[in-house]
Amino acid sequence: MEMLLTQEAEPGLKSQSGPWLPSEPPSSFELPLLPWEDVYWYVKRVDNRRLVRATDPAARRSYWHFIRASLLVLALLMAALLPGALERWAARRLAVAELRQKELAAERLELLREEAALTSPAQLDKWARKLHMVEPAPGQWQNLTPKSEEGVSARAGLPANHPIAR
Q1: Phi, psi of 42 (to 5 degrees)
Q2: Is 146 strand, coil or helix?
Q3: Predicted TM-score (pTM) of this structure
Q4: DSSP secondary structure code for residue 156 in this structure
Q5: Where are the alpha helices (DSSP H) in 119-148?
Q6: Cα separation, 146 vs 156, whole angstroms
Q7: Residue-wise pLDDT tens digits, 40-65
Q8: Contact 1, 44 (CB under 8 A)
Q9: Are 37 and 20 in contact (CB under 8 A)?
Q10: What distance in Å separates the CA atoms of residue 160 and residue 149, rounded to the nearest whole number?
Q11: FRET pair for 63, CA 20 to 30 Å: which of 14, 36, 48, 123?
């Protein structure tokens, strides 16, 4: 930075008065002079864009040491906090599973009640009347589990010595 000091010499000034000392009494409407009022500051702009810093191996080592230490602290912090986080996550999953189990048990009970209501003898009679179903006469029904195996193989058309008929 450069400092330019300029002093204007007035013809009526005494030799002992400087630029900050008034030579005549100030009027009631003027402000007094300030010290260094006539000093101008000039700032020269410097362009350092093409300037390249020299590499410092000690700074590089300290930089990588800081990165390694930060990663180590981060790993230790994660190792310290991970069990608690996993425990909370598992507890949340367990709570959700228990809630789902309760919901499914309630739904199962509701379905069992609904099934019991729909398969009650009164409901079946109601459906039979609605669909015009009547009970079969004694000669209209067949027993699907016969007592003798020969009757089954004979009705199926298999010979008596067939391996399935035995």
Answers
A1: -120, 125
A2: coil
A3: 0.38
A4: H
A5: 121-130
A6: 13
A7: 888 899 998 999 888 899 999 999 99
A8: yes
A9: yes
A10: 9
A11: 48
